[in-house]
Prior knowledge:
The protein has helices at residues 11-21, 26-36, 81-94, 99-105, 108-112, 115-118, 121-139, 144-148; strands at residues 61-68, 71-78. The chain is mostly helical. It has a single domain (5-142), classed as Sufe protein. Chain: A (Alpha-Beta Complex). It has a two-stranded antiparallel ribbon. α1 (11-21) crosses α3 (81-94), α2 (26-36) crosses α3 and α3 (81-94) runs parallel beside α7 (121-139). The chain is globular, with a radius of gyration of 15 Å.
Amino acid sequence: xIIPETYLRKNSHRDLIDELLSLDTAEDRxxxxxxxxxxHAPLAVEMRVDSRKVPGCLSGLWLEGTCVGGACAFxxxxxxxxxxxxxxxxxDLYSDRSPEEIIAIGDLIARAVNLDGLLSVTxxxxxxxxxxxxxxxxxxxxxxxxIAS
Length: 149
């Protein structure tokens, strides 16, 4: 699957995808995701409250999203280093984008890099929940008439 160039306009987004796709095996890709997780700004301890906790995840997962000045930013914390690595990757890929761009991208990038192919069924829930949260956060920034179209 090819990712449209318009979704890779920022070097940081392109670099993340290129680095992941340059690795040959699923094990190498999972290692990369876990190794880079400390590079992602973690969700502050005081933000890890029940209202931000993702229901149904076996390991605790908390998500935060904000959109200010036309750009969204996402943060996460998980008790699992694997989940933290995967959701941090998603947060970094979707941060610094407008709500409209996030909605247009949808799950395209996650499918293009085959994140689900790297994960067990229970870990896929974290990926799906994170993408749903990111898309919901972006959708909430749009006027009602734009959401309906």
